Amino acid sequence: MIIKGIQKVTLLDFPGRVACTVFTGGCNFRCPFCQNSELVIGSASIPSISVEDVFDLLKKRRGLLDGICISGGEPLLQSDIESFIDECHNLGYLVKLDTNGYEYERLAALISNGKLDYVAMDIKSSPERYGVLAGMPDFNIEPILKSVELLKACGIEHEFRTTVVHELHSADDFEYIGRWLKGEKHYFLQKFVDSGEILQPNLSAPSDETMNEYLRIVQRYIPDAEKRM
Fold this sequence. Notes:
This protein has 229 residues and is of the alpha/beta class.
């Protein structure tokens, strides 16, 4: 595992759990609004954290933490992620995965083997515009479609979420997303925040009014959809 960062405690990343979050280096997307761009294109220059140090932290915090969130970057690019998850489970922790869903085969294997307790998958946009939001002109939407259907049917706790960018999203996108995810329980809209290290300059957050408009659109299909700040 190439681990480039760790948040030792979080009440937000793993719903209903006190957790820590590790951030893996490298990603197969180049989202123009990515807030962790240093993990996407500059991870080689960031010192790595050994898995032994992560496990030492988990051992010391038994009884204080419930779980670990594996985020990125894109964690499913890590060839040894399954053995890392196994050790987290051996130490008594629940495991949440944050993913863009593009590595469908690896996601399916982890779910089939009972390795994941919670999955959060990013939904970038409507399928027709996915490549623009993923920063990949020749984008193959098929793995994303398969990952969405997998999570809908798998029976493990999961959520879908979209980071909303004023310049990159429209009401039509959320009309499609609402129909695409119809019947799901957990879907969140989260407002873009400029971390100062995004890949494309001059992007901005939508207004509260626009966020509410998009939320009303998706709630026609996903009544429990929420905004997450």
